[in-house]
Amino acid sequence: PFFLGVEGLKVVSWNGRGICHSDPAARASAGTVLQNIGRQAHVLCLQEVHGHGNKVVSQLGLWLPGWKFWASMVRRNDGSANYGAGGVVIGVCTELAQKATSASHTVLIKGRCLGLTLGSAGGKTLNIGNIHNFDLRRDQVLAVGKWMERVLLKDRACPLSSFSIFTGDINFMADGEQKFKVGRRFVPGTLHRPLPTVFLQTLWKSVFANWIEISQPFPTYMCSANNVGSRIDRGWTTAPASMLINFDVPSSTLGSPEDFDSNGISDHAPVAYVLLPKTKSTFTPRPIPGKLAGIHYFVKRWQLGQLTSTYLHNQQPTNCIYITRSS
Fold this sequence. Notes:
The protein is of the alpha+beta class. Helix content is about 25%, strand content about 25%. It contains ten helices and 16 strands. The chain has helices at about 25-40, 55-65, 95-100, 140-155, 200-205, 240-245, 255-260, 290-295, 295-305, 310-315, and strands at about 10-15, 45, 70, 90, 100-110, 115-120, 125-130, 160-170, 180, 210-215, 220-225, 230, 235, 245-250, 250-255, 270-275. The strands form three sheets. Strands 1, 2, 3, 4, 14, 15 and 16 form a seven-stranded mixed sheet that branches. The chain has a six-stranded mixed sheet with strand order 5-6-7-8-13-10, with helices on one face. The longest helix has 20 residues, at about 140-155.
């Protein structure tokens, strides 16, 4: 993901609950949030933007000069624009916009899902997907899945020249997760239930089956009606585990959803996904644990000098163990 010359890549996803509000005060508050995010992010994936496509791009350009934006807005069944619902935008910072030699966007679902491919002179590509999974049909999910499968196959075939990240408001939690009730240490089982089938969780899970989620532990959405938070804004990448262990991949919310909600901005908090190359200061191989040192297989290979970083990098993720040789 560093082919465009940046030291790292920071992608921020945010459901702004109507970022380009018709109300000037609310719109100004959303603009302040985006300006603060834009000072550090390379890519913005925005959901629930609302408004007319051209006006949205113009407004975002005023808040973040030099950025390049691609937008898709919701349409009603009769084809007319629905300015008060949905709307997704992908934005790239000035540095990426200037260094990319090509940029191609694909509207996968109008107002709900957008794909963007940035290219470099050497033929390398960065694919970005942004989704607001709300009230989608089965055929629409399959259309998104087809795009995701295409970029996945390319990334796995050419991992050094193609990389993809997919993020947004997916509207369901990961398997085994529970909602967070404010003021309660343990969530009762009555709050741990799947979301309505309108979100097609089972179908989405099959779409994401071969992608790796970049997970973070904090709630991203807060329902003020019952003070319940959940982690429904999520992100995935096509990079295999054997590649990701060579990166620092921190991710977290930027603030809390309850703070955004109490300030009347949104019921979601922005979520940042960061990929950084490991350096000597951030990565030092760990010594062999005592139990591992006693296993004949590892001792034999250690004596033969076969436990090199290259050897381990080519193994399955469960076998990838970094070892430091005592001097």
